[in-house]
Amino acid sequence: MGRRDATEVFSEWADKGKDGGMEKGHARSVHAMLELAGVPRDSHYSAIDVGCGNGWVCRRIAQDQMCTHVVGVDGSARMIEKAHSIDEQGEYHLAMLPDWTPKQTFDLIHTMEFLYYLHDPQSMLKMFNDEWLNSGGILVAGLDHYLENEDSLSWPDALNVHMTTLGIEQWKTAMLDAGFVDVEVHQVGQKENFIGTLVLIGKKK
Ligand SMILES: C[S@@+](CC[C@H](N)C(=O)[O-])C[C@H]1O[C@@H](n2cnc3c(N)ncnc32)[C@H](O)[C@@H]1O
Asked: pTM of this prediction?
């Protein structure tokens, strides 16, 4: 049997209320990622959360008074319905990536636990750099499924979903090949039996 679409699986998770558990589980790493991204405190910025699930990170970013506009995008219909039901005024798009491009460009792209669901995450990184970011804009991406996190290597079979498994150096190379500068790699949110969320940060020239 072929692999299932990740977005279908996550719609089921939304129906079962498991999006709340993801929010709880990811919050510590996302907090660290937003700190590390180092959004300038003296100027306004726009942001997008890619693979936003129920949109909780968008709502968190929207609390920052320096953020003038925040957008969420996700390919799961039920996640986006939830996002709209929690936050009627918010801008959330139901769209499959990489087949969607936003109508505007952004100063910050945040993405948590999304990139490896793509068959070609390297091309998505290049699209972020070439088409989605303003000059000087920042991408911050968090990944819990990566080669060095051995516990995560069973996830594709456990969920029957495609995941592109890359190691830390391969992710760093993908960022550089995509054209990002000032590339940084971190691991955050370590706890017992968890080597941490891999965080990639890069700037568009
Ligand atoms: C592990 S969840 C993370 C959700 C959210 N970022 C969070 O941290 O709670 C991954 C999300 O990526 C979305 N996703 C996966 N593949 C996608 C694709 N090709 N296009 C759009 N969304 C996708 C799923 O629907 C799901 O909501």
From this structure: 0.98
CA of 74 to the centre of ligand 1 (A): 6
Name the band, by pLDDT with cuts 50, 70 and 90, for residue 41.
Answer: confident
Average pLDDT over residues 117-122: 98
Pairing of strands 181-188, 197-203: antiparallel
What is the position in ligand 1's atom list of the atom closest to the CA of 5? 16
> Which domains are seen in the chain, by residue range?
6-20+46-203 (3.40.50.150)
CA of 54 to the centre of ligand 1 (A): 9
The set of residues, in sequence order, having a beta carbon less than 8 Å from that of 151 and lying 6+ positions away, is 193, 194
Lining residues, ligand 1, CB within 6 Å: 6-7, 10, 22-23, 26, 51-53, 74-76, 79, 96-97, 112-114, 117-118
